[in-house]
Write a structure and sequence with these properties.
The complex is a heterodimer of chains A (323) and B (502).
Chain A lengths: L1 H12 L3 H17 L6 H26 L7 H17 L4 H25 L4 H20 L4 E2 L3 H8 L8 H19 L1 H11 L1 H6 L4 H27 L1 E2 L7 H11 L11 H20 L6 H26 L3
Antiparallel strand pairs in A: 1-2
Helix pairs in contact in A: 2-13, 2-14, 3-8, 3-9, 3-11, 3-12, 3-13, 4-5, 4-6, 4-11, 5-11, 7-11, 8-9, 9-11, 12-13, 12-14, 13-14
Chain B lengths: L4 E10 L2 E11 L4 E6 L5 H8 L9 E6 L2 E3 L4 H6 L2 E4 L11 H6 L12 H14 L16 H13 L5 E5 L7 H16 L3 E5 L3 H7 L2 E6 L2 E7 L5 H9 L17 E11 L7 E11 L3 E5 L6 H9 L7 E6 L2 E3 L4 H6 L2 E4 L3 H4 L7 H6 L14 H14 L16 H14 L4 E5 L7 H16 L3 E5 L3 H7 L2 E6 L2 E7 L5 H8 L1
Parallel strand pairs in B: 3-8, 3-9, 6-7, 7-8, 13-18, 13-19, 16-17, 17-18
Antiparallel strand pairs in B: 1-2, 1-4, 4-5, 9-10, 11-12, 11-14, 14-15, 19-20
Helix pairs in contact in B: 13-14
The chains are: A mainly alpha (323), B alpha/beta (502).
The structure holds adenosine-5'-triphosphate (ATP) and magnesium ion (MG).
Chain lengths: 323, 502
């Protein structure tokens, strides 16, 4: 009894627990209907979907912990994919084409950071503005056309892996997740993110260079978004002008389901991992249970609200817990 | 006489903390009861139960008003019974007027419309009655003076004409004269038969004001005395559970070497363009010295610190030299890089990160020192923060406790620990011992001695006169934007300081 209480208490104290509970719940529900769900190859499929989201959501967690806002990484995904595609068509060697795409992400990240952190424009509207501007720019540059047919070895990035079904994307995403988990939980930079998001004034007086730290968070997200652009181009053998559009709010939801607050100061990368896995799990589960995909948005919305409600319940429970 | 209030066998638990353990006491009409105890003893918690902040059901025990049991299920229930509380953590509406702040909850007028004329008139009448000089229509944000803001939060409770008034450390931001003013108002209430529960770490005040005193320690009530049957020393011993050695004496270890030199500091007044907060102020601080900025609340002492540190920038002009070298400080990060550190007056808004735990808060300004590569060296961190955690007796289940769950005084200790750990060249302290108990104050003074012996300099602002006088090696007294006098050693006395400001 005592032990059970202790573990309950531990679970209550973790902000990731609502996401974890829901991941397990859906796993049980779907498996009850269709047991192929928990087969390794299906789980790897889910992980593959997760990894595209996770690559951005992991640095996005840091950015949101820092109390910043970014609504333009989707268009960075598209633009980086296109850039990479062009470079490949000009027969630039693959590593340089990828570097070019990343540089493009870096540049946009810097631009965004300067506008927000140096000029002091408000994050929500400014990044939304950048998103519109970039998607317009992409349409102008490409005329709305995809860039297709890449070299085999480039395609392998998105379509193969060291083992069948264990795609390179999954491996890279997991490595990046671990890196950001490490940054956020163990390093001085991570501590600064929490401090700035938690109390800007306190952080400032402690000598933390707020401008620089928030800048880093913005650049990290954009560079990772560019990487996703490259992977998507490789996977579909096609760089599409709308490869990343509409993912901004979705990913933010994933991060929030994982326990990160919109106001900053709290959140973990592990939570985000769970949140992203949950989203992919829902997609996959709907297919396996043969529920019409029209249900998708409805269910996703309900889950998002449920996660927030669970988190509120958890916090109330902590506040009023007796012994 | 029958008691008007009885609290019986009250027990309150937080996760991992027994905040109150079977506490009982009673209060008569017109009685002023002091409540004393170390930081985290449970004083605020006990009073929050009375005021309905912790509603019936979240604790065990009973409350009787006029001999009848009551279920205090919300703040409004308590207010309906005539119980008002001024909380330890000031929570005023900065963007509302003085009048709105005072009358919030019962603004005059119809259901939807506020009758501002009536509001201002009523407020002015009240302010005149208690002879407080404030403009009812003034927006609170433009009242830069933290003492007046604290005064407003006290008046806000008094204006509702309570039968039982709870004051939780009401004088932490007030200086001598303002305290006198508040006491005069309270004496008036005594004549009207109001009962008061008075929490304070300033024992002088308790002895001056109260008829009796209740001592809490670790959530238990350990003693109750009529005030004329107990001595300060006995009270302290009961509070801390150990004997504090006699009077603290600060050792003057200041040298001739100038470590910080401030020249031609100029701070304009943001509200009145013709009047400056500080005019051409210059001073020097020596290695190992405790240098005081004296003066009344509102003399610009905090502003001087903020302006030097780069927190306050609007229109500020200054020349700052550190160890003889001129440096540009445009933002706090510059000051920190140059070896300065600044403990501000407001722990909630600029001292703590509420969501972080004790360890992370203490180490926040010293992370450079703890650099393992590439991660923070957590073992070293825990060890170094632990030293202050223990020395200052921060009361919590462990260093991993979220600071939001600490009592007010323990939060202040965390902020103190953060700055003491930085081992900077010059440490700015603005009201460092606000809300801290006597025992921890002593430990803090010891740490200051230890650090000044190592060569650190301190610039001190403190409204706690005895503290200011005993700590300072040298001080200047600010009034009307200028240094009116410089005092050193034995010249620093209450009389001499007051003489300069009036
Ligand atoms: N919300 C909370 N969650 C967990 N613990 C709490 C909470 N509020 C108070 N405590 C704990 O309860 C104990 C009593 O706190 P309380 O605020 O009553 O102390 P206090 O006597 O008012 O101290 P101080 O002089 O520092 O104001 C402390 O150990 C504190 O850590
Ligand atoms: Mg208290």
């Amino acid at each position: 009894m005592k032990l059970k209480n202790k573990t309950m208490q531990k679970l209550l104290n973790k902000e990731e627990s609502p996401a974890l509970i829901m991941v397990l719940l859906i796993m049980i529900l779907v498996t009850a209907v269709n047991s192929t769900f928990v087969r390794p190859d299906n789980l790897l499929d889910i992980l593959r979907t997760t990894s595209y989201n996770l690559l951005i959501a992991a640095p996005l967690t840091c950015l949101m912990v820092c109390g910043e806002m970014d609504l333009c990484f989707g268009s960075v995904v598209s633009l980086a994919g296109i850039t990479c595609g062009w470079l490949l068509q000009m027969e630039v060697p693959i590593p340089f084409a990828i570097l070019g795409a990343l540089a493009c992400g870096f540049a946009i990240g810097m631009l965004k950071a300067v506008l927000l952190c140096n000029v002091g424009l408000p994050g929500f509207i400014t990044t939304l503005g950048i998103q519109y501007a970039l998607s317009g720019l992409i349409l102008l540059l490409t005329g709305g056309q995809c860039i297709n047919y890449f070299p085999e070895s480039f395609k392998a990035l998105g379509q193969r892996g060291p083992l069948p079904k264990l795609y390179w994307t999954i491996i890279v995403a997991l490595v990046i997740t671990i890196v950001f988990h490490f940054i956020l939980s163990k390093t001085r930079l991570g501590r600064s993110f929490y401090a700035i998001g938690g109390n800007r004034e306190t952080a400032k007086l402690a000598g933390i260079n707020i401008g620089k730290v928030s800048m880093i968070s913005h650049v990290m997200v954009s560079v990772c978004a560019a990487l996703v652009g490259v992977f998507k181009a490789a996977r579909f053998n096609s760089a599409q002008p709308n490869a990343g559009s509409g993912t901004e709010l979705l990913l933010m939801c994933g991060v929030i389901i994982g326990g990160t607050g919109i106001a900053g100061g709290k959140g973990t990368v592990i939570g985000t991992l769970l949140g992203c896995f949950l989203m992919a799990e829902i997609d996959n589960g709907l297919i396996l249970t043969r529920v019409s995909s029209y249900w998708n948005n409805l269910i996703f919305g309900v889950i998002l609200i449920l996660a927030l409600a669970l988190d509120l319940y958890r916090q109330k429970k902590i506040a009023s817990a007796k012994e | 006489m029958k008691p008007i209030l009885e609290m019986k066998h009250v027990t309150k638990r937080f996760p991992g903390v027994l905040a109150l353990d079977n506490v009982s006491f009673s209060l008569k009409q017109g009685e002023f009861l002091g409540i004393c105890g170390e930081n985290g003893a449970g004083k605020s918690t006990l009073m929050k139960i009375l005021s309905g902040s912790y509603p019936y059901g979240s604790y065990e025990g009973e409350l009787h008003i006029d001999g009848k049991p009551v279920k205090m299920d919300s703040i409004s229930t308590a207010q309906a019974l005539g119980i008002e509380m001024a909380y330890q953590e000031l929570n005023v509406m900065l963007d509302a007027t003085v009048a709105e702040n005072l009358m919030v909850g019962n603004l005059p007028g119809g259901k939807y419309i506020v009758d501002f004329k009536k509001l201002y008139n009523m407020t002015r009448e009240f302010l005149d009655k208690v002879s407080v000089d404030l403009d009812p229509a003034q927006i609170l944000r433009s009242v830069t003076n933290s003492g007046q803001i604290q005064l407003i939060s006290i008046l806000r409770a008094i204006i509702k004409k309570p039968r039982i008034l709870v004051l939780d450390e009401p004088t932490t931001a007030l200086t001598g004269n303002e305290v006198k003013q508040v006491f005069a108002i309270l004496e008036q209430l005594r004549k009207e038969g109001v009962s008061i529960l008075y929490i304070s770490h300033k024992l002088d005040e308790v002895f001056e004001l109260c008829d009796s005193v209740l001592v809490l320690r670790d959530g238990k009530s350990v003693a109750f005395h009529l005030i004329n049957e107990v001595s300060q020393n006995q009270l302290i011993e009961e509070m801390v559970g150990r004997n504090l050695e006699n009077q603290y004496r600060h050792k003057n270890v200041s040298t001739d070497e100038v470590v910080l030199s401030v020249k031609k500091l100029h701070i304009p007044n943001p509200n009145i363009s013709t009047k400056n907060i500080i005019d051409e102020l210059s001073f020097e601080v020596h290695r190992g010295e405790v240098f005081g900025l004296g003066g009344l609340v509102g003399a610009g002492r905090s502003e001087v610190l903020g302006a030097i540190f780069g927190q306050l920038t609007n229109g500020v002009k200054k020349i700052i030299e550190i160890e003889g070298q001129e440096i540009q400080i445009t933002k706090p990060a510059d000051a920190v890089a140059a070896g300065l550190a600044f403990l501000t007056e407001e722990r909630r808004s600029s001292g703590l990160v509420i969501n972080m735990n004790i360890r992370e808060n203490i180490s926040l300004a010293s992370l450079k020192k703890l650099k393992g590569y590439p991660a923070i060296n957590e073992r070293k961190e825990t060890k170094e923060t632990g030293r202050f955690y223990e020395k200052l007796r921060i009361k919590a289940p462990s260093q991993e406790t979220r600071v939001g769950n600490l009592s007010g005084g323990n939060q202040q200790k965390v902020v103190l620990a953060k700055w003491l750990m930085t081992e900077c060249k010059v440490l700015f302290l603005d009201e460092p011992t606000k809300g801290i108990d006597v025992g921890a104050k002593r430990e803090f003074y010891d740490i200051i001695d230890e650090l000044t012996q190592k060569g650190m300099a301190v610039v001190l602002v403190s409204s706690d006169m005895p503290e200011f006088i005993s700590l300072c090696d040298r001080c200047i007294v600010l009034a009307d934007g200028k240094a009116q006098a410089e005092l050193a050693g034995d010249e620093i006395t209450q009389v001499n300081i007051i003489k300069e400001v009036v």
